[in-house]
Amino acid sequence: MKPLRALSTTRLLILVVAVVALAAAAGAIAVAASGGGGSTPPPKPLATALHDSLSGQAPVGVTARIKFTNKLFPSGAITGQVGSALMSGASGRLWATNDGRGRLELQSNAGDVQIVWNPNDLSIFDASSNTVYRAKLPAQKSDATDAAKNSGAEVPTVARISDFLAKVGEHVAVSGAEPSNVGGQEAYTVRVSPKHDGGLLGAAELAWDASRAVPLRIGIYAQGASSPVLELAATEISYGHVPASDVEVAPPASASVVDLGALDKQTHGADSAPRVHASGLPAVQRAVDFTVVAPDNLVGLPRQDVRVVGSADSQAALAVYGHGLGAIVVVERKADATAGGGVMGSLPEISLDGVTAHELSTQLGTALTWKRGGTAFVLAGSLPSAAAEAAARALK
Known about the structure:
Blueprint lengths: L8 H20 L17 H9 L6 E10 L14 H4 L1 E8 L4 E6 L5 E5 L3 E6 L4 E6 L7 H7 L7 H11 L3 E3 L3 E5 L2 E10 L6 E9 L5 E8 L7 E10 L4 H4 L8 E7 L18 H7 L9 E2 L2 E9 L6 E6 L6 E7 L14 E4 L2 E7 L4 E7 L2 E7 L3 H10 L2
Parallel strand pairs: 6-13
Antiparallel strand pairs: 1-2, 1-12, 2-3, 3-4, 4-5, 5-6, 7-9, 8-9, 9-10, 10-11, 11-12, 14-15, 15-16, 16-17, 17-21, 18-19, 19-20, 20-21
C-alpha cells in the first residue's frame, strides 16, 4: 500500500476531482445536460416546486450517458501531462441505485476512470496509472431521521421549505425555479450565488426532475464566467431497475492499490497518536516546537482563529483570516527534509522575495507552499494567484 503523502501532485489532484465527481453523481443519482427541446413544467414558486418534486416517487435506479467537463486548471497551472479522464474532461455512463450503490465510468484519450461506491466503500480506478484508490466512507447515522425516512415520513410542507429558503437567503442569493427541459425530462433549474465573501466562486446551478426528487444537472461557475468550470451532465436518462453487475465492478487484479483509509474526521487504529488541542496564539505557540507566524491581520483580513491541528507527533498550526469563501487559510508546521516538496513539489515554482515556492493556480482558488526559517507553510484560498502571493509575502 502506498501512503497518501507519497502520491505525486497529479495523482492527488485526480483524487480531489474524483471526489467532486463522486459527490455530484452520488447526490444526483442522474445528471442531465441542460438545454434542448421538449416540454417544460408550469411556472411555480421555488418552495412549491421543491415540495412537489419531493412528493413524487423516487426511482429504484437510474442509467444515464454522461459528460464530465473540467476547466478548473488554466493552461500552465500544472507542469507535465495530466493523464486522466478526470483532469481533462470525459464522457461515459452512470449507473446508480436508490440504496446508495453506483458506478461512474469515464472514457477519454487521456485514460479511463471508474468510480464505484456503496454506502460504506469507495474505489477509484485510474487506468492511466493502473492504480486503484480505496477508502472507507463516513458511517451513516442510524438515527430518527433515517428511521423516519425509511418509514415514509411526510414531505416538508411548503411553509417549512419557505422558512428554510429564507434562512439560506441570508447568506446566498437564490434564484427562482426556472422551468426547463433537462435531458428530455421536465425540470426546474435554480442558481445559487454568494452574497458576499464568495472568493472566486461565482455560482452553482442545480436542475432537478419536476416530478421526482432526483437532481438532474450540477454546474459550478467561477466569478464572471458564463460557462461552468466543473459540470457533470448527461444526454440520455432512463429510470428503472439497475442490475447489481452494473454497480459492482472490480478493478484489474494487476492494479496497484492505494489505501486512503477512512474519509472522515476521526482517527482510527490503536496506534494513532493522541491529538493536541490548543487555540489562541499564546496557547498554540506553547504547544508546538516551532515559531508560529500568525499576524493579527493578513493583507487587510483579520485573523479569526488559530489553533493546533494534527496528532501529537505531527503538529501544525492552522490560522484563518477573513470570513466565508473569501477567507485565507494558513497551515504552518516544523520544516523537515521533505518540507516544500511532497505532493506540491512538482508544481510551478515562483519566487517570494527570494524564497522558492510552489503554486497551484485554478479558476476557483490558489494554493502555495514554501519554507522559511525552519517553518513550512501552506496558504490556500479562493482568490487569484497575485492576491495569494501577496498574502504569502506578508507572512514573515
